[in-house]
Structure prediction request, 668 residues.
Amino acid sequence: MAADRLVGEALEVELERLLEEGASFPPSQEFVGSALISDTAVWDRADADPVGFWEEQARELVWAKPWDTALDDSNPPFYDWFKGGEINASYNCVDRHVEAGLGDRVAFHWHGEDNSQRTITYSDLHREVQLAANALKDLGVKPGEVVGIYLPMIPEVVVAMLACARIGAPHNVVFGGFSAQAVAERMEVSDAKVLITASGARRKGKAAPVKEQVDAEINGRDGGLPSLEHILVVKHAGQDAPMLDGRDVWWHEQLQSADPDCPAEPFDADHPLFILYSSGSTAKPKGILHGTGGYLTGAAWTHKHVFDLKADKDVWFCSADVGWITGHTYIVYGPLANAATSIMYEGAPDYPHQGIWWELIEKYKATMFYTAPTAIRACMKWGAELPAKYDLSSLRLLGSVGEPINPKAWLWYHLVIGGGNCPIVDTWWQTETGHIMISPLPGVTNAKPGSATRPLPGIRAEVVDEAEGNEVERGRQGLLVLRGSWPGMLKTLYGDDELFIQTYFSRFGKETYLVGDAARQDADGDMWVIGRIDDVVNVSGHRLSTAEVESAIVGHPAVAEAAVIGQSDEQSGQAICAFVTLESSHATSDEIMAEINQVVADRIGKFARPKRIIWSDDLPKTRSGKIMRRLLRDIAEGRALGDVTTLRDPAVMAELEKQVAAQASEEG
Ligand code: WT7
Prediction:
């Protein structure tokens, strides 16, 4: 039977009380008593010698050759961690645990959305990863050559990533929610030689073809994809797939004929482990490139200490998709480097029912759960009665990631899921940082709902002013920056060192990484991250650029112009709102609206579709023709308009306001 948890009226009253009180939450004595880190000495140690601190953490991994120089910082922002060292990430995530006698430990309790189950031990991984690595070698993949991965949340995605790591082929994983067109583009710009995909995917009880759509996209392009030599296809969801002779091979056949022995080769510490495309301020996603030794050091240390992992007892559940950085670092590399046992769920949080996560926590006795605020808000909407039906008493720690968590969602998570006695770690980081940067340490920090609290040991984060980049007084808002480097820092943007420097280091110099978030530090020194300062929108923890969505929308032949903004949204944090001007030959209609949504789904993915499209005859522009998004945000959120005097034609705003009001009343 489930422990008594607050629901209904009693929960509302308690939430209101705690919100009003503005309480902070120290860890319980019990938690502190068994925590890996239970005092602040670790910060002093790292402050005194940050490089030495990270060296100590790197020694927890197995190196084929020790490094000569812990950090070469002679050419910022190109920092070289553990220079001269050689390491294999797949060896560290798999082989060494098997060698240590942990072969029978479960790496993944995999749960399918159709309720099928697979238990994957470290020995299983060891066998499968070697086969897959040899399968890739048999397809001609050499160290340094890129392998694309576009797979659903199935164990093969982990095997594929580790197989790439084993042979030094950087993987380029594309989230399953992206469209086939987005996949083809990412394969093209990363010069991928092989793509690993699935015949089909399960989507809330239905099977959808995947390979077929990828094919249509690739074959429909002029000259196809010149660098792509093979497509390796995992049979899934009972779907067959068209196979092109000589190019396409089935995963199961290729693995069956592969040599079972594939020793892990050592690679330089800075050998590229993966590329992950992520949205920036422009329409073109950036290929964020991560190295091996530094990244793995940061992933392993943070996974162990931010979540206070006891790998022999804990059961870890991260609800992210492997296609995002959270999945890379906290489903694959961090947990596996630490020999952890994880739950991996194939489906959506509301399928087959809205209590599936809680069912899985009860079934596999998860001790930790890591998810995004948007998911917590969805669960709030579904009601506290649902989780109350399950026994969640195995949980001892909760985590949040991806966007600022509003205090009410934090408190709900704490009371309803954590039963009031699990520390919550609100972890701030980015695709670029590779691993968590700002977060409570659960056995030490007084958590405050809504604050990610302090930079981790060995990390220097500051809030600075826009003009000079000097640290601002506490309590003042400014730009969040990271000084110097840290082990998991991106190496560069794939194939574009110049863009790397320009994007992150042109503002305050080459030793200060510009994050792109605004933040404030309170009187206690705790960080409150406010949100993006650039044209990046965070929809349900998914990062999108307004320019990317605009460029998709103007791809519709009837569209003359489009401006996209992120509008605050109670559910998803931010939502996409598009102002669209049609060519004069076209009248606005529901059909065109549906087509615009479809264009965005085809070009990027369904998750990028605008929540709201506002027809506009004209857009507010400065005299030089720049669209004033600030005013569009004011209008969309129904705020009083800011300064309009710099507009070329101030009458545009009055027209737009009328249009918004008319459309709103139509939509009821
Ligand atoms: C952006 C990075 C970190 C992995 C998933 C997202 C926002 C992330 C938090 C947090 C407030 C957060 C920031 C950041 N963000 N975590 N705990 N509190 N904001 O990675 O797609 O690279 O996005 O997500 O705005 O810059 P990403």
In short: The mean pLDDT is 95.
